[in-house]
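WARN retry 2 of 3 for item q-0093 after timeout on previous attempt; input resubmitted unchanged.
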Amino acid sequence: MAETEDEIVWTDDMIRWDDVKPKSKDESDEEEQAMFNPFKDPDPIKTFTYRFPRPILHKDKDGGFIEVQLQGYLSDADEVWQSTGVTLWRAATFLCEFMMKNVDLFQNKSSLELGAGLGLNGILAHLMTSEGSTCLTDGDTDALIHLRENVKMNRVKERIDDITCHQLLWGSETSEKFLEKNSRGQKFDILLASDIIYVKSIIAPLWETVQTLLTKKNGIFVMAFAKRRVPVSIEFVLQSAEEAGFTHELVSEHHEGIWVYLFRWK
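OK item q-0093 returned
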């Protein structure tokens, strides 16, 4: 696992509220009183458990299922206001469905998850394949605490070296340093992400990161996007991808407003 000595203390609330007008103290006090919930769960820590049918290549394993257990917070916990990655969001589970139907896409490949949060998609990529490597990343130091524990709890004992966890702050310069430090300059075959877009200011650094980390030869960026009350539309994301040098393909869609796209180099 990665050392934490060189990490930058950062949580996503530092950019999430950029466009929000600051409130006065009186307004903040009134809002806190209005939000007070006497029935709120006093223990917001939760264990999220997921079970997936094992791919055919794993049928020799016991039980016929892949089980993933993650420690994190309930979505209404106060901690989520500071770090959205400490809970699970619906696009992550929808992306898992796509992954289980397309195991061959990940087999014997090097995969990296961006904005991994609790790590559901990256951990599943590790567990559902018999060969290949998986790197889970997040920039948020609060999320990384839970992410590292979840990786330790779920990794295959015989393949400990095949899954790693590191901090990654998006942007071309930080991504280049990340490559040199953590993968000997080797780019990745597959990039994964779900529910990572919440403000426009992260779009340019996101595509700079994808440009830096994704291999030119048959590289694929798999992203699940959920329609939410954020000032960023999927149309804007796709246009930005085009300008960054990527084509896009819609490969899965949920009626509740979740889409899975594959991005490839032009």
